[in-house]
Amino acid sequence: MAASHRRRVGVLISGRGSNMASLIEAAAHPTYPAEIVVVISNRPEAGGLARAAAAGIPTIVVDHTAHADREAFERELHAALVAHRAELVCLAGFMRLLTPWLIGNWEGRMLNIHPSLLPLFKGLHTHRRALEAGVRIHGCTVHYVVPEVDSGPIIAQAAVPVLPNDTEEALAARVLRQEHALYPLALSLVAQGRVRLADGRVRLEGAWDEGSALIAPRPAARER
Ligand code: GRF
Predict the structure, then answer these.
(1) 139 lines ligand 1 (CB under 6 A)
(2) Beta bridge partners of 9
(3) Are 87 and 157 in contact (CB under 8 A)?
(4) Pair 17, 39: CB distance under 8 Å
(5) Taking 50 as the threshold, does the pLDDT of residue 3 lie above it?
(6) For residue 124, what are the CA distances in angstroms to 14, 18, 59, 76?
């Protein structure tokens, strides 16, 4: 794909920005179909800002505490994305709820990564809740953003086993490794135009194979 046809992406963060960094790293490859044109944080102290700046990406702080209300905050956020001619928006650990106004402005063009296999475990503390529920398989999801939190059409998912002695931290780290592979993959599919929305669900274009099944616990050789 010619460099001029790469889709322009704005990334919204609130914290350390490891998913943002995975997108920046993927987009550094000349054949990747998207480029990160701006990183915007609602928190001035977000660690991801320095990581983005170090990669040469323009960074902006739109501090929600410095705005009179949610509407004023979102208008500035939107204006910053438009000013950088963003075509797509990736939420990457962005911890503010967005109103239907902003989401409507980016309908079908705003993605989020959530650390669970949606529709399970919407909201916060997903790893703790997965452990409490006793699921054997957990994971992460990239989906389109709709006004209802963590509920938009699913683009891609990655699964990991939950191990017997897992702590919340160990499970979070296992999922995060997959997040860093999944988000660049999902954004690539969207940027290539291989993701279509129909009746509130995603249709993927292209050839896909079955891959391999994840069985947890994985049967020992003698039990197979
Ligand atoms: C990730 O687990 C992401 O799925 C969730 O918040 C976390 C952000 O981490 N939405 P980072 O800022 O990308 O490192």
Answers:
(1) no
(2) 36, 88
(3) no
(4) yes
(5) no
(6) 15, 18, 26, 26
Nearest to 52 by CA among 36, 33, 64: 36
| Alpha carbons 162 and 217: distance in angstroms, whole number | 8
The 10s digit of each residue's pLDDT in 112-128 is 999 999 999 999 999 99
**Beta-bridge mates of residue 159:** 139
Instruction: Evaluate: CB of 174 within 6 angstroms of ligand 1.
Output: no
DSSP lists the bridge partners of residue 111 as 90, 144
CA atoms within 13 A on the CB side of 16: 4
Per-residue pLDDT at 22 exceeds 60: yes
Mean pLDDT of 179-207: 96
**Alpha carbon of 202 to ligand 1 centroid (Å):** 23
Hey, whose CA ends up nearest to atom 1 of ligand 1? 93
Residue holding tokens 């683009």? 155
Instruction: Tell me: pLDDT of 56 over 80.
Output: yes
Per-residue pLDDT at 54 exceeds 70: yes
Residue from 36, 41, 113, 138 whose mutation best tests the ligand 1 pocket (most atoms within 8 A of CB): 113
Q: Provide, rounded to the nearest whole percent, the portion of the chain with pLDDT above 70.
A: 96
